[in-house]
Amino acid sequence: MDVHAGTFDPNEFAWRGLTMTASAAEHIRQLVSKQPGIQGLRLGVKQTGCAGFGYVLDTVNEPQKDDLLFETDGARLWVPLQAMPFIDGTEVDYVREGLNQIFKFHNPKAQHECGCGESFGVQAE
């Protein structure tokens, strides 16, 4: 039996991409309009929390060379190529929860979330 273990190269995949709701796009455009030099947001992931991974949002002055750009109605969202295996297909929303307004991530790759909703886990394919 020949077992071949290859390496993972995110450049070799056809990504479905990320989408933004109208509410998320509007909020990103508002953030950009209030901060000179900001081009949009970057959505990444980091290992954290009780479920494994957490979302990280940062402002973007200058995109990184390996960032993928997703744009909706003039709102720009960059994603590091290395994060795509964990968040490909995610819809980014901006919602009101009680007195707070927050970004919500509807990620089809998330197999489970922690109780507080701050982290998620993915199942290896």
Give an overview in words.
The chain has 125 residues and is mainly beta. It has a single domain, classed as Hypothetical Protein Aq_1857, Chain: A (Sandwich). It is 14% helix and 42% strand. The protein is built from two helices and nine strands, in the order E-H-E-E-E-E-H-E-E-E-E. The strands form three sheets. The protein has a four-stranded mixed beta sheet. It has a three-stranded mixed beta sheet with strand order 1-6-7. A two-stranded antiparallel sheet has the order 8-9. Strand 6 and strand 7 form a beta hairpin. It is globular, with a radius of gyration of 16 Å. The N terminus is likely disordered.
Q: What's the short version?
A:
The chain has 125 residues and is mainly β. It has two helices and nine strands; from the N terminus they run βαββββαββββ.
Main beta sheet: 4 strands, mixed
Which regions contain 5 or more consecutive residues with pLDDT less than 50?
Answer: 1-5
- Relevant CATH superfamily: HesB-like domain
Oligomer: single chain
CATH architecture, by name, is Sandwich
Total domains = 1
Overall structural class, as computed from helix and strand content, comes to mainly beta
Helix content: 10-25%
In percent terms, what proportion of residues is strand? Answer: 35-45%
Let me know the number of strands.
Answer: 9
What is the spatial order of strands in the main beta sheet?
A: 3-2-5-4
Succession of helices and strands: EHEEEEHEEEE
Q: Please, how many helices?
A: 2
Mean pLDDT: 82
